[in-house]
Design a protein that fits this description.
12 helices, two-stranded antiparallel sheet, 2 domains
C-alpha cells in the first residue's frame, strides 16, 4: 500500500536545487557555438524518462517511475510544507540559526563545506538544505528535553558505540607471478626492508595515487577473517607467510598495532549524541509524516508549468484517494495508527555524526 504514494520517494536530505527563486533563462552551455539555456534544461528534465544508475557495479540506463523534473517538483512541495509547519510551530530557522548550524557541522566534520562544494553546491544551496534539515529536526524534537545525565547514561549503557576499534598499520605486497614472488623472498632474506621490496614487486595498484605498499584497511575487524587472525597473532615488525588470494599471493608485515580504547568525546561530539537522543525520542512521540500528509491534503498547490500540470494533478488525485482510504480505515478501527500514511522522510535523518 505504501508504494502507491508518490510522496514515499521524497528524500529531503541533501537535495540541492539550483536556481531556486531565480527568474528568467540563463545561458547553460554552448555546443559548437549554439546556445542552450536553463529553460532548455528544465524542459528536458520535465520529460526525461530514464536515468543512468550504478547497478551491480556497472552503469545502466533504467526507466524512471516519474521524470526527474516531476520528482523534483514533488520534493520542492514537501520542503515547502515542512517549512510552513515550522513557521506554524514557531521553530522556523533564522539566518543566524543556519549560520550557527553550519559552524557546528564544520566542527563535526572539518571538510563539510568542501565536500558539498565538490558536489557543485553553492553556499546558498548548502544554507537552504541546512534550513530544511533544521526545520525538520526542530519539529520532531520540540518539547523534548535531553539532559547531560541522559547523555552520560547513554554513553555508559552502549560502550561499543563509543569505542575506538583495534587497528593495525600493515605493509603488504600482492604478487601474481611465482618467479617474482621468489625474488621478493630472496631480497627479504638478504636483509632488504619490507617496504622497498613491496614497492618493487607488488602488482597492487591503489586508486587515487595511494602508496601501493600500504594495505588500505587499518581497522582489524574490517579485514578478511584470515587476515584478522594473522594480524592478531603477529607482533609489530613481524611478517606473515604467503596467503593465497583470488588475485595472487599476498604477504604482510605489521608496522604498528593499536588496541581498542574508549573514545574521549569532546563537547561537540556530546552535542551530537544529545541531538540524536532527542531525535530518537521525538520520532517516537511525534508523527511528523502524518502532520506533513495532513497539511499537504489541505494545501492549495498550483502548478504553472504546462508539462508538469497533468502529472501533478494525477498524482495529487491518487494521493488524496489513498489518504482518505487509510484515514477512514483507521477511524473505523478506532485507532490513531498512522503506520500506513505517506512517509516523506522528513524526520528520518539525524544531525551529522561525530568522527
Amino acid at each position: 500500500m505504501k508504494n502507491k504514494f508518490w510522496i514515499l520517494c521524497v528524500a529531503l536530505t541533501g537535495l540541492a536545487l539550483a536556481g531556486c527563486g531565480q527568474k528568467g533563462s540563463e545561458q547553460l552551455v554552448t555546443v559548437n557555438g549554439d546556445t542552450l539555456n536553463t529553460d532548455d534544461y528544465t524542459s528536458a528534465m520535465s520529460v526525461k524518462n530514464t536515468a543512468r544508475v550504478i547497478l551491480n557495479g556497472e552503469v545502466a540506463e533504467l526507466p524512471l517511475a516519474e521524470t526527474p523534473g516531476f520528482q523534483t517538483l514533488q520534493e520542492l512541495v514537501i520542503r515547502q510544507i515542512v517549512l510552513q509547519l515550522a513557521k506554524d510551530a514557531g521553530v522556523y530557522p533564522t539566518d543566524a540559526d543556519i549560520d550557527k548550524e553550519i559552524e557546528f557541522r564544520k566542527k563535526v566534520n572539518s571538510t563539510f563545506m568542501r565536500e558539498l562544494n565538490a558536489r557543485g553546491m553553492t553556499v546558498a544551496q548548502i544554507k537552504e538544505n541546512v534550513k530544511i534539515e533544521l526545520a525538520r529536526e526542530r519539529l520532531v524534537t520540540r518539547g523534548v528535553n535531553v539532559t547531560k545525565e541522559d547523555v552520560d547514561n547513554f554513553i555508559k549503557d552502549d560502550p561499543a558505540q563509543f569505542t575506538e576499534p583495534a587497528r593495525a598499520e600493515l605493509l603488504w605486497m600482492l604478487i601474481r607471478d611465482e618467479n617474482r614472488k621468489n625474488q621478493a623472498d630472496a631480497e627479504l632474506r638478504g636483509g632488504q626492508s619490507f617496504g622497498p621490496v613491496a614497492v618493487k614487486y607488488t602488482d597492487y595498484n591503489p586508486a587515487q595515487g595511494g602508496q601501493k605498499e600500504r594495505y588500505p584497511i587499518d581497522v582489524i575487524a574490517q579485514m578478511p577473517p584470515e587476515l584478522q587472525k594473522i594480524v592478531t597473532e603477529l607482533n609489530e615488525g613481524q611478517t606473515s607467510g604467503w596467503i593465497r588470494t583470488g588475485e595472487g599471493s599476498a604477504k604482510f608485515m605489521v608496522e604498528r598495532k593499536y588496541p581498542s580504547r574508549p573514545r574521549q568525546l569532546d563537547e561537540t561530539q556530546r552535542e551530537v549524541v544529545r541531538r540524536n537522543l532527542a531525535l530518537s525520542r521525538g520520532n517516537a512521540a511525534t508523527d511528523l509524516n502524518r502532520r506533513i500528509a495532513e497539511k499537504l491534503k489541505e494545501a492549495k498547490v498550483t502548478v504553472s508549468k504546462e508539462e508538469l500540470k497533468t502529472p501533478w494533478q494525477n498524482s495529487e488525485k491518487r494521493f488524496r484517494e489513498e489518504y482518505d482510504k487509510l484515514t477512514q480505515g483507521a477511524a473505523a478501527a478506532g485507532t490513531e495508527s498512522t503506520s500506513e500514511l505517506p512517509k516523506t522522510g522528513a524526520a528520518s535523518a539525524p544531525p551529522p555524526e561525530g568522527n
